[in-house]
Amino acid sequence: MSTETEAPVVVSVDLGARSYDIVIGPAILGSAGVEIARRIPGTRAAIVTDANVAAAHLRTLRDALSAAGIGHEVVTIAPGEKSKSFATLQDTVDAILAARLERGDTVIALGGGVVGDLAGFAAAIVRRGMNFVQAPTSLLAQVDSSVGGKTGINTGHGKNLVGVFHQPRLVLADTAALDTLPPREFRAGYAEMAKYGLIDRPEFFAWLENNWKDIFAGGAARVEAIARSCRAKADVVARDEHEVGDRALLNLGHTFGHALEAATCYDSARLVHGEGVAIGMALAHRFSARLNLASPDDAERVEAHLREVGLPTRLSDVPGGLPDAEALLAYIAQDKKVARGALTFILTRGIGQAFIAKDVPISQVLSFLEENLAP
Amino acid sequence: MSTETEAPVVVSVDLGARSYDIVIGPAILGSAGVEIARRIPGTRAAIVTDANVAAAHLRTLRDALSAAGIGHEVVTIAPGEKSKSFATLQDTVDAILAARLERGDTVIALGGGVVGDLAGFAAAIVRRGMNFVQAPTSLLAQVDSSVGGKTGINTGHGKNLVGVFHQPRLVLADTAALDTLPPREFRAGYAEMAKYGLIDRPEFFAWLENNWKDIFAGGAARVEAIARSCRAKADVVARDEHEVGDRALLNLGHTFGHALEAATCYDSARLVHGEGVAIGMALAHRFSARLNLASPDDAERVEAHLREVGLPTRLSDVPGGLPDAEALLAYIAQDKKVARGALTFILTRGIGQAFIAKDVPISQVLSFLEENLAP
Predict the structure, then answer these.
(1) Which residue among B42, B103, B124 places its CB closest to the CB of A164?
(2) Out of A1, A183, B144, B333, which could bridge B192 as a Cys pair, Cβ 3.0 to 4.6 Å?
């Protein structure tokens, strides 16, 4: 991976016949038509996007497709997590069918995680599977949700409980598109980036500690950081595409994080996903120290770095208060990483040494939560 | 395959890690608990069924599950094709989530093709994929829709345009359950059975010509005929799971058939799927003879056998009249087996010699339809 030039960096996800490239670089959206036509000759496309992203980036993508001779329609959904619903899924599916797209045609997701998860699910189920291309425009989507094939929607029973695995044919991560992100949203994506270091790449976490300002400022370190994150995720996905084993490591910080998102009613004014993950990762490290699995020094180092970039790390950082420990535990138990009633957590032996802990005693989770909720 | 005893016959579908058994026999539903527990130890289950099937077979299945210690909930949908909708899918998904089933648990479809297609789709998307078991109670479902992993629902744009491939872990075909089927529905399933002979097993078609009465009467030939049909389908599915090639042969009779179903508004009082397929197969053979690909004698032999068992074979057999040739062609073009604007048909060089014909000229289809619509 070069950080010397503006040439795009390509990270390959190795999944046999379903392998694909993640092409990362500033202004890569302007090359979308060429990149897609090279991989899916003769395709037509449906762009799924939301109104906010459309205002900033749709023109660029449409021009790029037209220049490459790719006929296309646009499906615009409402911005926000509420669009990850059966109703919006049905609308999107109907719009794709109304455009008379065929099995060999392509759905392009232009936007953040919500657009990607919804559009990918629609691509997976129209005609039992169309081609899918991700053009993520948020940092979270570029380093996490656009890679690995998870798609889905939310239901009243919880987030992402309905969906399928459907790998994209191509991911186009335009790093310049991140310049327009609100700082809070950029930070939230950064939490997932730090996660890869914490799972099994301690040298990457150390590099982030030294380079985070350049990443936020949009310097050469940004492309490198995104590429290294995608490489980390691609390696895990290639090992365990359908999350029957190792892939669960990517849930570091997510079991606590999802519970906090649920407890705040997915109200992004209070907590966004990456913030939940940041608190969750800090808690996972503290919990591991509490269980004498890891040194408290590592937990403090993790917390210090996350706080330095402006991320929350404590339950008391969640504005508006939280329910009690029992209620938080109930949210954790409804999370989909529950196997046969036992609680599964991603714990750690130190920075870069995360592991899957099955059968974590509920009583210990409960008392840990009680301690952390205490004023 | 034995026809001498009442012991169940097992047909294996070879799909590597996703291989599964089709267990065929009278009263096999009474062994469902044992068969499932052996393959998916510790599972809990949601039975998806419709009110009609529940009245006839739900007690048997529930008792079998309980005897094997499999805790379960029941989700009952309205009988009929209208249940293959987004609304019923959402209700079914919600019911499975409300039962707090986990990823390792099982959705069991007890019913015909509608229940199987809907329940399989729900199983595929809840928690990105639960275990799925088919307990087909119609002949059509036993010899066709329960095998091969196609799941889906209908939309205003057409039938089965939304869905995924999700292979079952087990298929339990209770041949005695067919005793309660209305004769018209049994005949409709028989059309799919005859299809396997017409595709590439001329000796099976000849055997059906000699044994159909025993199959209808429920004799030993019934189990054998269902097993041979499942074997035929399993072979095609194993070669081409996701229908990128050979599997399209299974659409023999279906391109015309789907158009007729659409033209009659999926009104089962006028035409059920298997009847559409019977007419479609007769048309495909006549069309092939008309194109000088096959002998007209074969087309006559196919028509004679289908008429002998009581199936329709001509456009004029559809009660209530049909739209004109142009309109039928439009239904054909919306069918999902259209690739890049060219019409793809399954044609034949004679009984047991079907092949995939791409780029069939629209003008020839149109004039053939006009001839067949003429009084």
Answers:
(1) B124
(2) B144
Does B358 count as an annotated binding residue?
A: no
* CATH code of the region B226-373: 1.20.1090.10
Please give the structure tokens belonging to residue A239.
């090992």
3-state secondary structure B12-35: EECCHHHCEEEEEECCHHHHHHHH
Range scoring the smallest mean pLDDT among A132-136, A300-304, B336-340 = B336-340
Residue A226 has pLDDT above 80, yes or no: yes
Out of A93, A128, A339, closest to residue B164 by CB = A128
Least confident span in A11-15, A335-339, B96-100 = A335-339
Cα separation, A142 vs A12, in Å, equals 14
Q: Is B349 labeled as catalytic in the residue annotation?
A: no
Residue A124 with chain B: CB contacts under 8 Å: 164
CATH of domain A227-373: 1.20.1090.10
pLDDT at residue B375, rounded to an integer = 74
Q: What is the dihedral of CA A226, A228, A230, A231, to 10 degrees?
A: 160
Where are the CATH 3.40.50.1970 domain residues in chain A? 9-179
Please answer yes or no on whether B161 and A126 come within 8 Å at the CB atom. Answer: yes
Q: Which two tokens stand for residue A21?
A: 């490239």
Spans of chain B, pLDDT less than 50: 1-5, 336
Q: What tokens were used for A134?
A: 């991700």
Closest CA in chain A for residue B151: A128
**Residue B370 annotated as catalytic:** no
Inter-chain touch A339–B97, beta carbons under 8 Å = no
Q: Please tell me whether B138 is known to bind a ligand.
A: yes
Of A251, A269, A265, whose CA–CA distance to A337 is shortest?
A251
Residues in chain B with CB shorter than 8 Å from the CB of A340 are 42, 102, 104
Q: Which ranges in chain A are annotated with CATH 1.20.1090.10?
A: 227-373
List the one residue out of A22, A14, A23, A20 whose CA is nearest residue A239. Answer: A14
B249–chain A nearest CA distance, Å: 17
Tens digits of per-residue pLDDT, B282-318?
999 999 999 999 999 999 999 999 999 999 999 999 9
A-B contacts (CB, under 8 Å): 87
Three-state secondary structure call for residue A37:
helix
* Predicted pLDDT at A322: 94
Residue B333: predicted pLDDT: 81
Every domain of chain B with CATH number 1.20.1090.10 lies at: 226-373
- Residue B113 among known ligand-binding residues: yes
Report the distance separating Cα A204 and Cα A196, nearest Å: 8
- DSSP 3-state assignment of B143? helix
Q: What is the dihedral of CA A173, A174, A176, A177, to 10 degrees?
A: -90
Residues carrying CATH 3.40.50.1970, chain B: 9-181
A40: phi then psi, degrees, rounded to nearest 5: -130, 75
Domain B9-181: which topology? Answer: Rossmann fold (3.40.50)
DSSP letter for A210, please. Answer: H
Asked if the A9-179 domain carries CATH number 3.30.70.260, the reply is no
B243 counts as catalytic: yes
Interchain contact, B152 vs A128, CB within 8 Å: yes
Label residue A51 by pLDDT band (50, 70, 90): very high
H or E segment and range at residue B362? helix B362-373
Specify the DSSP element, H or E, that contains A298.
helix A296-308
Q: Which residue of A has its CA nearest to B92?
A: A162
pLDDT at position A337 is: 52
B242 annotated as a binding-site residue: no
A153-177 pLDDT, tens digit each: 999 888 899 999 999 999 999 999 9
Q: What is the pLDDT of residue A338?
A: 54
SS3 content of chain B, % helix, strand, coil (to 5): 55, 20, 30
CB A77 within 8 A of CB A92: yes
